[in-house]
Specification:
Blueprint lengths: L1 H22 L8 E2 L1 H8 L3 H13 L3 E4 L3 E4 L4 H25 L2 H16 L7 H18 L2 H17 L8 H18 L3 H20 L1
Helix pairs in contact: 1-3, 4-6, 4-7, 4-9, 5-6, 5-8, 6-7, 8-9
Length: about 210
């Protein structure tokens, strides 16, 4: 029983480590995933790595071709468009519920997330900046107190963060996104549901266009 548990633990570790390498941009969309390189990078044997790759394939993060192997799955234009369309609907719902269910303490955390996003100012948009952006939005979902909504939104963000290249993101987008967040926070503080939804829709569509650019 302990051996089975250890095996699952190793698979989970390999799974998390591969996603971490994608986040750190050490594995890029379209890049082939060679076992010997992953063994060196992760310091693990082949079996847990293979099982982790199978799991990542099932979740859509990597793709597998017979006699070729695995590769980080690039995200195409249709998937980006579809993802942001779903995100828009989820976040509009989250904002409405957050205004009903959110506490003052959760609003304070949202303001902290806003400040963290504003304070981190890299020369170019990077994965950390994108994660801080998503953290702000996920806090609104936390305030909505809907576990399924949180799960779906978190998975949506993961695919955008891990499978999107940011080379084309204009640095000016950081300031624009920060201003969007500031306006959204203010409208939430004022309990203005209609304005919240309008701001979310505008912000997400702009994010989609930058990602598709």
């Amino acid at each position: 029983m302990a051996q089975k548990s250890d095996t699952h633990s190793l698979i989970d570790e390999a799974y998390r480590s591969i996603k971490r390498l994608m986040l750190q941009q050490k594995l890029h969309p379209g890049q082939k995933l060679l076992y010997r390189e992953l063994i060196q990078l992760l310091g693990m044997s082949t079996p847990p790595i293979v099982n982790a790759l199978n799991r990542l394939e099932q979740e859509g993060f990597v793709t597998a071709e017979p006699n070729v192997g695995y590769a980080v799955k690039p995200i195409d234009e249709k998937e980006i468009f579809d993802s942001f369309e779903v995100r828009e609907a989820l976040e509009a719902k989250a904002a409405r519920q957050a205004l009903k269910n959110g506490s003052k303490k959760q609003m304070a955390v949202l303001e902290e997330k806003l400040q963290l996003f504003e304070q981190y100012k890299p020369a170019r948009y990077d994965k950390k900046k994108l994660m801080l952006d998503c953290d702000f939005h996920l806090q609104i979902a936390m305030m909505a107190d809907n576990d399924v909504l949180k799960y779906l939104l978190r998975r949506n963000f993961e695919h955008i963060i891990l499978r999107t290249r940011l080379d084309h993101y204009e640095p000016a987008r950081m300031a624009t996104a920060a201003e969007d967040h500031r306006r959204l926070f203010k409208s939430m503080k004022n309990k203005d549901a209609a304005r919240c939804v309008k701001l979310i829709e505008k912000h997400i569509r702009a994010s989609r266009d930058y990602t598709l650019h």
